């Protein structure tokens, strides 16, 4: 169950300003999400980004948006799959794998993973790019996703899986991102 760049899309769930003071290890997680976004661009992966009720929770944080070339999809549903336009965008990208990251592990990330899996999409969760307000809820969310069939991964593991080999210009770019 390796990630394949011809099959994979990156999905970033709700990495928004209101979570900055509220969740565990926000700065590290946001930095890891930004690394995934940058790596996805280097590797040519489609990227979908969601924002949960941005009027109340703010927009995607600058450390992530500065690397985006897509407009976030607004939602009030917990699962990204229920957000207007998300399923169509994923279908249009013609991808059957998703590399998933974001906030919160036990709510929006989990429900997105479970719905994607139910729709036949292979889900890989970058555990070092996922968080929640408490360590218990983060652990629960990650556990539920794995029990539902998601593949646990990390930012570096995912990017090198997608690369497949060294010695290319893309390798040098990705290697610089994870150093």
Describe this structure in words.
45% of the residues lie in helices and 20% in strands. The chain is α/β, with parallel strands linked by helices and 179 residues long. It has a 6-stranded parallel β-sheet. α1 runs antiparallel to α8. It is globular and about 45 Å long.
Write a concise keyword list for the protein shown above.
179 residues; alpha/beta; Rossmann fold; 6-stranded parallel beta sheet; 20% strand
Note the gap between the termini.
Answer: 25 Å
The biggest sheet, with number of strands, parallel, antiparallel or mixed sense and barrel status, is: 6 strands, parallel
Quick one: CATH superfamily?
Isochorismatase-like
**How many helices in DSSP terms?**
8
CATH level-1 class: Alpha Beta
Q: What are the low-pLDDT stretches, counting only 5+ consecutive residues below 50?
A: none
Backbone shape: globular
Rg result? 15 Å
List the strand order in the largest sheet.
Answer: 3-2-1-4-5-6
SSE ordering: EHEHHEHEHEHEHH
Instruction: Domain count, please report it.
Output: 1
Q: What portion of residues belong to β-strands? A: 15-25%
Structural classification: alpha/beta
What proportion of the residues is helical, as a percent range? 40-55%
Q: State the total count of DSSP E strands.
A: 6
């Amino acid at each position: 169950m390796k990630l394949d760049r011809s099959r994979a899309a990156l999905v970033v769930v709700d990495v928004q300003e209101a979570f900055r003071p509220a969740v565990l290890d926000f700065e590290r997680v946001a930095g890891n999400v930004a690394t995934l976004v940058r790596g996805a661009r280097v590797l040519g992966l489609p990227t979908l980004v969601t924002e949960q009720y941005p009027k109340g929770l703010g927009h995607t944080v600058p450390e992530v948006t500065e690397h985006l070339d897509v407009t976030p999809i607004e939602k009030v549903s917990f699962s990204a799959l229920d957000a207007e336009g998300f399923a169509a965008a994923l279908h249009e990208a013609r991808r059957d794998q998703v590399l998933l990251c974001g906030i919160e592990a036990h709510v929006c990330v989990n429900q997105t993973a479970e719905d994607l899996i139910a729709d036949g999409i292979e889900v890989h969760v970058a555990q070092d790019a996922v968080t929640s307000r408490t360590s218990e809820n983060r652990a629960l969310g990650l556990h539920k996703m794995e029990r539902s069939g998601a593949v646990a991964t990390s930012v570096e593991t995912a990017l090198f899986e997608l690369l497949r080999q060294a010695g290319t210009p893309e390798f040098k770019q990705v290697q610089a991102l994870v150093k």
